UniProtKB/TrEMBL annotation:
Protein's recorded name: Putative bacteriophage protein
InterPro entries, per database record: Barrel_Baseplate_J-like
Domain Baseplate protein J-like barrel: 122-189
Organism, scientific name: Commensalibacter papalotli (ex Servin-Garciduenas et al. 2014)
Top-rank taxon: Bacteria
Pfam families: Baseplate_J
Length: 422
């Protein structure tokens, strides 16, 4: 029995050291045309002018076959690229993350510390509601008891996930408890976020590669960025770590680093629960015996169980100062722009700044370029014609601003000004 060799003129995928190469769509189509002509010499595929007869039954079949092959080639190429961390997304990106022992961060809730005042020993139960000026509701994280000074710091968690702003001095009582007189929040809340995007996850994966090491600034930063509380929620919104390895003090912006010291700045809720998580993480990763610079001092115990009387240590770090950022956006007026054009522009800039659209949000110590926000505004629609975008932190608008190593930028939609010219 003789063997039969089958042959097709349709080009195949090519695998090289540079990756996968796909044949061009025209080459796939022409390959099918040649196959049909070889199998059915009498098939009429072209008109008298040499134009391919797409509307004929053969034309429809050939173009459908070519479309199927092209689609499958694209799917294979897409899947092959999912092993590259720079392109992976979804389930494949989650798998790469697990190699580094990190999970995608879920959507989180805004948290804020409220100073509750009232009678001594009055209980504020877990789940007690307060509200902010925008009528967003927050629940007490656990049971709290008002102390001898008539106050207690209560961590309240927003009941809605996502980037819910809670400005300073915006909380008020929502329900009545006998002996509880008032609540206020001297500091703004730590804003929650949506499910971690592909870009945000990849940035954190790159930062986490030092997570298994110790005695370096990278290992401290990585450990704090992946730190979660007892409920699995991220503790630190952002982290900045640097060191001074000289025998004399140095100044970095407004921060003075003592000789041979490390400086750690975290963007996190300043609560008693969080400070122990943060301090113990730093202690587990920092070099022994080094000095520490900062304005927050937390005492921790060595809970390793190696000592009959556990030694205590003082860990020093700083909380990032929130710096309000302002935008001034000048647009060319368009005849077909919608009535809510200004609101759409504000939403686009705000979502890009906070990372809600998948962008990488500005961080502690970062330089922020106004030009980075052209893309989200232009993506709104053809009517969005940008004349200029400028950014400021102190009333002086420019093309860029810089944050100190003890500062984290914050933005509210009220701080975005949209001007239409023409």
């Amino acid at each position: 029995m003789s063997s039969i060799t089958y042959h097709t003129n349709v080009p195949t995928l090519t695998w090289t050291d540079d990756g996968i190469t796909l044949p061009e769509p025209d080459a796939i189509l022409n390959g099918f045309i040649q196959d049909v002509q070889n199998a059915f010499p009498d098939a009429v595929l072209y008109d008298s002018n040499g134009k391919f007869l797409l509307s004929t039954p053969w034309g429809q079949l050939i173009t459908s076959w070519a479309a199927v092959v092209l689609d499958k080639n694209n799917q294979i190429a897409f899947y092959a690229n999912q092993v590259d961390p720079s392109y992976a997304m979804g389930r494949m990106q989650d798998g790469i993350g697990r190699i580094y022992f990190i999970e995608r961060r879920p959507a989180t809730y805004t948290e804020v510390v409220g100073v509750c005042r009232g009678g001594i020993s009055v209980l504020i139960p877990k789940g007690t509601y307060v509200a902010d000026s925008a009528n967003n509701k927050y629940r007490a994280k656990q049971d709290y008891t008002i102390g001898d000074d008539g106050t207690v710091n209560v961590t309240f968690i927003c009941e809605t996930k996502g980037a819910i702003e809670c400005p300073a001095n915006s909380l008020s009582m929502y329900e009545i408890i006998t002996g509880w007189d008032s609540v206020s929040n001297p500091k703004a809340g730590v804003v929650g976020r949506n499910l971690e995007s592909q870009q945000q996850f990849e940035q954190r994966r790159r930062q986490s590669v030092a997570g298994n090491s110790v005695n370096s600034v990278d290992s401290i930063m990585s450990a704090l960025l992946t730190l979660t509380d007892a409920n699995g929620n991220p503790v630190c919104q952002d982290v900045y770590v640097t060191e001074n390895n000289l025998s004399e003090g140095i100044t970095n912006g407004s921060v003075f680093l003592k000789p041979h010291s490390i400086y750690i700045c975290v963007a996190a809720l300043d609560s008693q629960e969080n400070e122990q998580f943060i301090a113990k993480t730093i202690w587990n990763k920092k070099p022994p015996g080094c000095a520490m610079t900062g304005d927050k001092v937390v005492t921790i115990e060595d809970d390793s169980g190696l000592y009959s009387t556990a030694p205590t240590y003082k860990i020093t770090y700083s909380y990032a100062v929130s710096v309000p950022i302002f935008f001034q956006i000048v647009m060319a007026r368009s005849q077909d722009q919608p009535k809510n054009a200004a609101d759409q522009i504000k939403n686009a800039v705000y979502n890009a700044f906070t990372g809600e659209d998948g962008s990488i949000r500005p961080r502690i110590g970062s330089r922020i370029l106004a030009s980075d926000f052209f893309r989200p505004v232009l993506a709104i629609g053809n009517w969005a014609r940008v004349i200029s975008i400028q950014i400021a932190r102190d009333g002086m608008y420019s093309n860029s601003i810089s944050m100190g190593i003890d500062e984290i930028p914050t933005l509210t939609k009220d701080n975005i000004t949209v001007i239409f010219n023409g």
